[in-house]
Amino acid sequence: MFLPQKLALIILMIVFCLNWATPALADWTHPLSFSNAQLTKRDFSGQSLQAAEFSNANMELTNFAGADLRGAVMSASTMTQANLHQADLSNALVDQVNLTGADLSDANLTEALLLGAVFTNVDIKGADFSDAILDKVQIKELCAKASGVNSQTGVETRDSLGCQL
């Protein structure tokens, strides 16, 4: 092959590789970032927010009912009186989050990291905490009010927390 033909072939291969790799790279990055945002009283109900970033956000009175929050990062946020009814928070990072007065009824918190989260006056009826990471004090507090069965997973809240009878 002549030099111009080799060069054209190399350029064609590079262009093809760049076009092929771009969609894969887009899937790898976080689609949404709300870090440090003021999201008070916002309505995210039913939305797909997988792997979204909410670190240090103020989400007081925010509606996440039925939202897909799998793998979301909510570290060090304020979620007082937030509505998380039937939200999917599996594999989410919910560490150091103030959930005072929040509605977690029928939520899926499977394998969520919840260390340091504040659960004062939360509604957890039917919530599934299977394999979630909680400390002993949190488990004791949650077991005192645990009841119900999760409608999506069929797991009893008390069983998911490992509560003693």
Automatic annotation (TrEMBL):
Keywords, A to Z, come to: Signal
Which taxonomic lineage is given here?
A: Bacteria, Bacillati, Cyanobacteriota, Cyanophyceae, Nostocales
- Offer one Pfam family short name for this entry: Pentapeptide
The protein's name is Pentapeptide repeat-containing protein
Q: Which residues form the signal peptide?
A: 1-26
Task: Determine if tRNA-binding is one of this entry's keywords.
Answer: no
According to the lineage, what is the superkingdom? Bacteria
